[in-house]
Amino acid sequence: MKYKDIVATSEQEKANVFAEFFHSEIYAAPNNTLPFHDQVSKQVNIIKHRMRTVSDIKWKKITPEEVKWHIKQLRNSATGPDNIHNRCLKNYTSQLIDHLTLLFNSIVDVGYIPSMWKKANIILLLKPNKDKHQPSSYRPISLLSCLGKLLERIIKQRLLLELNRRNILPQHQAGFRPKKSTMYNIVRIERYIKSQLHHPIKRRHAAAIFFDIKAAFDSVWHEGLIYKFNDLRLPTYIIKYIISFLENRTATVELDNTLSRLFTLSSGTPHGSPLSPLLYIIYTSDSMNGIPPHTEHGLFADDTALWTSSHQLTNLNDRLQQSINEFEKWCKAWKLKLQPIKTELVHFSIHPRKKYKNPVQVKVENITIQPATSTRYLGMIMDNRLSWRTHLKQVETRIAARLSLLRFLNRAAIEPNHNIMINLYKSLIRTVIIYGYPVLLSADNKIWNRIQIIQNKALRLVLGLPHYTSVDYIHRIANIPRIKDYAVNLLERATSTAASNNEMIYHRSLQDILQASRTQQ
């Protein structure tokens, strides 16, 4: 393991190298570089002093029923430093529930979280295709106290209810929110671009930029987050809890049963905490406020995209650059850093191969970004014609190994159970090929013919039938609809759900796709 001038060989040395890397480069407190930062710091000191001196806060106490309900939702996840497992909590008695309720209410009343609940054991996952000898090649996962996370779930639920009641969260932030998914913004951008490329009066150019924010969750400025909680006038008891939640967090790196030295986490929200995604969403809730009305945006946690259109390429460039500059300004104010190298630009056109005199190109952090022919966005590969052919190629590559696994399982069993094999197909193959079905339904029939071939091949394989078996027969035996029929059925349900959730923009988009797909049939 190598870091700076240090070469670590023993497990203890390696663990300490990781600790030094995370402490100094990932979780270090970001410096104040603008006068605004000093203003926020001063204001937060006043807020903290006020929270320490305030008493007799009126708030709705946590109830035993609330504790019991959240315990029932727990999974059997790994334990934190206190070694209390969720299985212990699930085997609760009424006496334990009463004690936990009293404990949680006392913690919230006082605004003090036990230090053990703010300590993390960090385990490491090597990122794909990265050098295993570099500490930056690993993704940290925090193992936290299960008891602490139980209280965090309760606070998160209450906080989310308050945010929804007051309509604070951005409309187009779809990450980690009930009744929203990745499809929300995928459908929005696809509908927008297609409407511009096939404009009834004059076809327009469209462009989208997909940002990469460096260590987004780990870079949350603690003082900035507290400032925003206060600015949003969230309940005082929640602000007190969040201040304690962020203060004096510590961690050790666990490497092959060896623990590193203890170090502090001066920035970021802890991985593995139920609260972290919501805190990040609140932190970035005003990130699009400065974006001009001619540019659309989509957010899914830290995945941020901007898109716009124009008749002229120069105007398209200017519009997108103006919006990028506003987002850059916001990032600088709130101490988040964009990564231009990982940021991607796509110019959508009905003539994607045409060489333009003034091609679309923009600058991010003073680095020029050239347009790519395709990019991955929320699990879908969007090409510059929105044909979805590149996406389908990637899907075919991805499922090849899964088909081989099904073939092996079918041959290994003396008498394979067809019901089990069909269920394996549904979970391992169909979920992959059907992902993104709303926008795939707007693709031409050649795409669906290829997807149907994948299903045909998989069904013959799980049923142990030869390759010449008729398509109608394998679907009748498996009791599975044709893949496009299945997608249309899913779309009908999604359209109905969007209407019942009062997501009218999303509902109209899905309805347009549904009507078009029925016309094709």
Automatic annotation (TrEMBL):
List, alphabetically, the InterPro entries matched.
Answer: DNA/RNA_pol_sf, RT_dom
Q: Which SUPFAM superfamilies match?
A: DNA/RNA polymerases
Question: What are the Reverse transcriptase domain coordinates in residue numbering?
Answer: 106-382
Pfam families in UniProt: RVT_1 (PF00078)
UniProt cross-references to PANTHER family, sorted A to Z: REVERSE TRANSCRIPTASES
Spell out the protein name for this chain: Reverse transcriptase domain-containing protein
Species for this entry: Rotaria magnacalcarata
